Amino acid sequence: MKPLKLVHSRFIRAFRSGLTLGDLLQLAGCLGGFSLIAVPLGLATGLLRLAPPADAISTLLLYIPASFVLPSLIEETIFRVLFIPHPSERVSERRLRLACAVSLILFVLWHPMNAALFAPWTKPLFFRLDFLVIAAILGVGATYLYRRTGSVWAPVLFHWIIVLAWKLGLGGSVITFGPPTA
Fold it and tell me: Where does the chain cross the membrane (predicted)?
């Protein structure tokens, strides 16, 4: 199949695939597994703290819809759907592993690159090794969910819930939505 046609087909399948109850249970399991690893790591390194931001209500109203699109939907579409073969595609195990590894590396590297090129106010966070390790764990979970469900919606929800937990209770004042105000 030609590359453009393959990508188009992959996008159609990933976006049309709904989520079953089993898929939602997989999502819940991934969130639990992520939390068991990322929260203790983040608390131990000082990256995370258990305190909602002072402006939790305004953060909530702004960040719920915004974070669904960016980073969740856009990043998962690029780093999962674009780079990783859809479960319905016949690919060798070697090619699948390579695609997943490249996707994960690019996903992790995207964060400091984004900070350096587009959002310098995020450098204190996006250049932290502990943040990048947690981003890698998020990427592994999102990849697992995409491969298990064939749907973009499982990794998007996974990513979105993690970002909301970050912004609304585990350290949201470390990074803001947009450049800092003077």
Answer: 21-44, 56-74, 95-113, 125-145, 157-177
Report the C-alpha gap between 51 and 48 in whole angstroms.
9
Category of 171 on φ-ψ map: left (φ > 0), alpha (ψ -120 to 50) or beta: left
Tell me, what's the pLDDT at 52? 64
- Say which residues have a Cβ less than 8 Å from residue 178's Cβ, sequence separation at least 6: 121
Q: What percent of the chain has pLDDT over 70?
A: 86
Amino acid at 179: P
- Scored b (16 or more CB within 10 A) or e, 132-158 reads bbbbebbbbbbbbbbbbbbbbbbbbbb
Question: CA-to-CA distance for 110 and 74, rounded, in angstroms?
Answer: 12
The whole-angstrom separation of Cα 84 and Cα 67 is 23
The pLDDT, as a whole number, for residue 173 is 44
Domain boundaries, the chain: 3-174
Q: What is the pTM of this model?
A: 0.91
Could you tell me the CA-to-CA distances from 165 to 9, 37, 76, 124 in Å, in that order?
33, 15, 18, 19
DSSP string, 102-161: HHHHHHHHHHHHHHHHT-GGGHHHHT-HHHHHHHHHHHHHHHHHHHHH--SHHHHHHHHH
Quote the DSSP letter at residue 181: P
